[in-house]
Amino acid sequence: MIGFKAKFRLATIVVLSIGIALVAIYDLLKPISNGCTMTYMYPTYIPISAPKSLSSSKYGLYLYHEGWKQIDFDEHLKQLNGVPVLFIPGNGGSYKQVRSLAAESDRAYQGGPPEPMLYQEASLMFEGLEIDETNIPILNQYARRLDWFAVDLEGEHSAMDGQVLEEHTEYVVHAINRILDQYKESQDARVKEGAVASGSLPNSVILVGHSMGGFVARAAVVHPNLRKSAVETILTLSAPHQSPPLALQPSLGHYFEYINQEWRKGYEVQNSRTGAQLSRVIVISISGGGNDYQIRSRLESLDGIVPTTHGFMISSMGVKNVWLSMEHQVILWCNQLVVQVSHTLLSLVDPETGHPTSGPRKRLAIFTKMLQSGMPGSLSGRSDFHQQSPRLPLLKGRNFFGSVRKNITACPSKIRWSDEGLERDLYIKTPTVTILAMDGRRRWLDIKELGSDGRTNFVLVTNLLPCYGVRLHLWPEKGTSMSNSPLSKRVVEVTSRIVQVPSGPAPRQIEPGSQTEQPPPSAVFWLDPKDMHGFRFLTISVAPSPTVSGRPPPAASMAVGQFFNPEEGRKEFSPKSLLLSVFSQKDIFIKEDHPIVMNITFSINLGLLPATVSLETTGCGIKKSGLPVEEAGDMNSGRLCKLRCFPPVALTWDPASGLNIFPNLNSRTIEVDSSPALWSSTQGSEQSNVLLLVDPHCSYKTSAAVSLTASARRFMLLYNSQIVGFSFSVVFFALMRQANAWELGFPVPSLLSAVESNLRMPLPFLSLAISPVLIALFYSYLSSKSLPSVGSFFVVSMICYLIANGTVIVLVLTTLILSHLVARIHVFFKTRWRWWILDLSTSFFSFKVTRVINANPSLATSLLAIVLVYFVHPALGLLILVFSHVLCCHHALCSFLTASSEARAEDLFGFGSGIKKIESEVGLPVDDHSSSSPDSTRSYGDTQLEMFHHRHGLLILDLLCLLMFLPSLVAWLERLSMSHNFPWLLDSMLCMGIILHGICNSKPEFNVFFQIPGTRGYEIRQGFVYMIAGYCCYLWGLDLAPYKAFYAIAAIGVVSFIFRIMERRNRNSRKHSHRH
């Protein structure tokens, strides 16, 4: 019996697990505000005929046309001469999802490139070769339109089944070849009608894949049937690359590993076919950020698959002109992102050839320039969290000397305003400079004087456009005119170092001439000591305010700059304060005249514990405002501060999710889509840094409170695969305890009691829960892999292990309650209508087929299950195995309940002998030494109870396997009406091993796993094997590959089957020798 402490321990774990799950579900169901604008279109889908030789006729290929007028499909195909782009939908997606991208691409082609912004562009440099941005042409008109094709994959769920994923890959390869053939057919048709062939035919197709379609695009590139150089550019939207979103099915996980291994080998061995093909392929992965609950940024990363010279991953929050996190499906129609992607793909077209740029590095430079913000490069090394992204090879350590100086460009001559247009110069004597209007003045800042006392960095935040509204120069000495000497010798213009940041809506002016609220900043300019070395002065020139006749002047302009000491702006939220903030928020007060840049450190990663950060203005120097005292006292303090203080901006940077910018920060939950505390995480990922750009004239109260609902959601999304793997280890450890109890002659404990025993402190929990974590860390150390942060890795692993225990306990309790309920109902009716049931069972068991199955129940079960596994679907075979466990558990429990009933009930119905008869008919073991006496009856009941506990443990293990295959079964049922293919051999073989394990270890007396031939006493016991299997499942859970638990179960099943055959042969040979 389980005592009170054990029950309390189990109840606590169950409540913890259910509580976290319910809170996570609650947060997942809450609506998300993403800020995206809807995209509108007039779609037409033109079918592309497939050759008759194509075996898979259920899929289709379509060409998109934008326009409301009806067109002739054949004539439209004849005029096909653009750049082919193939859209691949994701899991359960439709080919019609291409409409947003295709429609905006058509509008972008007709409207032409957007006016170039003069903010700093993201730049990149490879080892030994610098990409000069001047080599990337600035286009006035795009060379050729994009022809958007889309594959119709019938809305199949490719994320649920590896075979579906492989079939999609094969069809995409056919579609790519078919698209290239269609261009040849279109040109031949035009020539046949008398047209002159102009231009060369395209020899490659740009692939754009959403969700699983992005992985299908990469899989198609390494497919042997793909034509050489048929794909050179891949753009994926919210696509998993590292592993499946739910790594449940073995064949699905194996296919991911195979494709990723082919890509790794392709880049390592360039002289092979795959290597030569991949050397020109560029892969860009765009993630949806924290709002994408289906695919996390960690899965979308290209690290370890595609080198930084051939691709990178970027979050939609860091995409230029987008700055938004979006849901999994929203990323397809979010107008801000769709427009940027359309212009990016059109920019790839070489104006000379009319085809995508052939050089992979130049294509990567175009993607970097069009998508990546200049922020990570410009803030490199400024604070602890501003480090270079491992996915994007940005320039490091920029200065204005040497070879890099040529990249600092001046403003275009057409928008340059001369010194004569400026009013008198202003000489700033304080470290902080404020600009409240376009006053046409130039401000001089003495770097040596203002940059003393540790104020070695300069930051300017503004809403003025570079070159159009503000210009900045570094001077080696004081000068009166920039024309006295050549620009390269006297002064360096650094206006192009201004970096764009997202800004909220500008404040409206109530009436002409009235004062408005401070507008939000839209740009940041940052100089560090290396940038200012060798210069004495920094000048900030503001353009004169434009006047428009009959209209009020424009909204307020602003610019605030400051020389500051980065160390003075560091604040920290400790782990204790963050955990306590769940109940009461933690406040940090920032006084006036503070640094303009505040670096707030969160000791616990915001990807694990998202925090709601509030920034409240508490003061803005009202007494120093210059207003009359009575007016300042009557005016609302908050409104006055809005007139004086610009809206704060928060920036975060994470190696996994990249740059995140939060404009107009008032009160917002800051969530970083990172992956801390994983086995693959690196040191330093346990904390997050938030950079706040705040007005130095104002004082603030900064508050942080951990969001409990968001934290629960993040935990379940990040570590669900880890919890699934740990669940297998929990069951294996429970089976180990049952096997050890049988070996030592003790009663077989229930699965619930075994799970509780493994949770006891210190020895069981230390050896089963903590030891695998230490083994994982030791393995990382020996293999020279990056070690995760030990503290967070250990804590998160323990929480996942406890949740896995809670999950198994809930599953065990559910099956126990159902088993007892059905068994008691069965026993109740059987004891009252015994003779009618016996007559019915006698007539049923008289059938020949029933007699054969009843004589060999294990053989019949295994044959039926294996046939279903190999020829129908593995889940159906596992279902038969689970059903056999259910029947055995039911009969054993019924026998126990009947045998343990009152003696008067047994004497009344004479059920003692009937039990054995019925149990022998269903193939359950019967104690030959039992009799009709009370003592022997109780012994028989105990035996049946032990049988129930043993088969119940196998039931839970095989039920977990069945649940792992349920998504694949759903995908198979959806495709059942179209066609039927045999299951993957890998899935079938593993499930056959699971069936052999369930059959060969169906009785607790099968406790010897393997015995070394020719020896006695050298046996490998079942308990030891279950412990090793539990450790393996634990480590596979840490590796986020829970499907590998099938390998452990199948291996045990195959070895057990071989040993049972050897054991039976030895028994038969001994019998034969005795006869002689």
TrEMBL record:
One of the GO biological process terms: protein transport
Family, as annotated: Belongs to the GPI inositol-deacylase family.
GO terms for MF: phosphatidylinositol deacylase activity
Keywords: Endoplasmic reticulum, Hydrolase, Membrane, Protein transport, Transmembrane, Transmembrane helix, Transport
InterPro entries named in the record: AB_hydrolase_fold, PGAP1-ab_dom-like
Region: Disordered, residue numbers: 502-521
Name the UniProt record assigns to this protein: GPI inositol-deacylase
Residues that span the membrane, as ranges: 12-29, 763-782, 794-823, 859-883, 954-972, 984-1002, 1023-1039, 1045-1062
Organism: Helianthus annuus (Common sunflower)
Compartments where located: Endoplasmic reticulum membrane
Record has Membrane as a keyword: yes
Function: Involved in inositol deacylation of GPI-anchored proteins which plays important roles in the quality control and ER-associated degradation of GPI-anchored proteins.
Main location: endoplasmic reticulum
Repeat as UniProt keyword: no
GO cellular component: endoplasmic reticulum; endoplasmic reticulum membrane
Pfam families named in the record: PGAP1
Enzyme Commission number(s) of this protein: 3.1.-.-
Chain ranges of the GPI inositol-deacylase PGAP1-like alpha/beta domain: 79-347
